[in-house]
Amino acid sequence: MKPQPKPGAWTFFRQWLKNPLRVAAVAPSxxxxxxxxxAELPDDARRVIELGGGTGAIxxxxxxxxxxxxxxLVLELNEELHAHLQVRFPRVPVLxxxxxxxxxxxxxxxxxxxxxxxxxxxxxxxLTMPHPLQRDIIAAAxxxxxxxxxxxxxxxxxxxxxxxxxxRQLSLRVRRGEFVLRNVPPATVxxxxxxxxx
Length: 198
Fold this sequence. Notes:
The chain has helices at residues 7-18, 31-38, 57-64, 79-88, 102-109, 131-143, 164-169; strands at 48-51, 72-76, 94-96, 117-122, 145-155, 172-180, 187-194. 33% of the residues lie in helices and 23% in strands. It has 7 helices and 7 strands.
């Protein structure tokens, strides 16, 4: 008997077929990629924001790594994926919205009342975005981060997901993390942080 795709995987693939430029991958992130993302969190990280929750592969891994439901905030732009995440993680704040609006959305939800996030993890397809959109999303994420917080992003291309010009404009340094072959397609993790911490 032919194995059936997991419901989350089918939901994700259907959304990719509808809008391949907005949904960055054809399949959800693998457990190996999720582990590589989590390995880049600060050792003391307890408050995390996830951009582009998708079907929840990285969300699940964050919770399994000890991030509490109330200390995790997930943002998803796609309505069907947002609904899927709300059902799968009923105790996690899952917001529907644009990543450029993250600071106001996080404030309205009450998340930032508990302090800034220690890290932002992102599954957004930054590499395919125009530079001004990249800049607005990254800037919004750093508004929600503590001074020495990190922005962890994966990408499928050979180049860094954030344009060098954008990183310079926002005074960010970049470090290349793990290359994850066991992902469809293979992915590389990148970590962004502020050049100088006050």
